[in-house]
Amino acid sequence: MFNRTTLVILCVALAGGLGLLVAQKYFASNGSAAAPQLEVVQLYPAPRDLPDFALQQSDGTQLLPGELAGHWTLVFIGFTHCPDVCPMTLTHLAQAQRQWEALPEATRPRVLFVSVDPERDTPERLGDYAHAFHRDTLAATADIPSLERFARSLSMVFAKVPLDRDAPDGAYTVDHSASLAVLDPQGRMAGVVSGSVLNAETPRPEAVAADLLRLTAEHRP
Q1: Any residues with CB less than 8 A from the CB of 201 and at least 6 apart, and which?
Q2: 10 CB contacts (<8 Å, ≥6 apart)?
Q3: Which entry of 6, 8, 19, 173 is 20 to 30 Å from 221 by CA?
Q4: Which of helix, strand or coil describes residue 73?
């Protein structure tokens, strides 16, 4: 049975899908704003600025908006105790990352994994987890209010959910959006990756890699 948190996450996903539909109609009807030929990345008609944020990276430094400048970045929220969605997504992303490793570090696309479970995910634990998939993955977290603001700016949501009565006292999971946000080299919310590891429409790693390589080549900062 769905709980309220799951319904909220589904509503946000539906809203995001409607936004993409509007974007597609915009591009189709506006010949002067032709969309790049991409397979799984869906760009918005116009990127939007993100509010200021400060996340704690696994190396002890702060991740600020300016740190993402110059790169196309894929952002995914989750947590290290996630049983399926997070490891599957990070595995797929690592396969894509290996296909753009030859690019110069100054322009190479990035993957940012943000833990929304700071109670259990220390920066060190988070870094060990993310880097086990790929060494270049950025890993960060923050306090809950900061994470909520950051997630909302990407049209994502999350919530701590207690486990059932048979679980140990205090045991919980975290419901969270499974989408991938796409940030442009100016650090703006530029679009999303279509599909999800939750269904049969999982974006193929080679398609994700090809789209990010194309964007990096055609839309330099």
Answers
A1: 194, 195
A2: 2
A3: 19
A4: strand
- Return the C-alpha torsion angle 193, 199, 201, 202, nearest 10: 60
Q: Are 66 and 187 in contact (CB under 8 A)?
A: yes
Q: What is the spatial distance between Cα 66 and Cα 49, in angstroms, rounded to a whole number? A: 12
d(CA 156, CA 183): 14
Strand, coil or helix: 126: helix
112 vs 126: CA distance, rounded Å? 12
Among 71, 77, 108, smallest CA distance to 187 is for 71
3-state SS assignment for residue 144: helix
State pLDDT tens for residues 13-66.
444 444 444 444 434 444 334 555 899 999 999 999 999 999 999 999 999 988
Q: At 56, is the secondary structure helix, strand, or coil?
A: strand
Q: Where are the alpha helices (DSSP H) in the chain?
A: 4-29, 85-98, 123-131, 144-153, 205-218
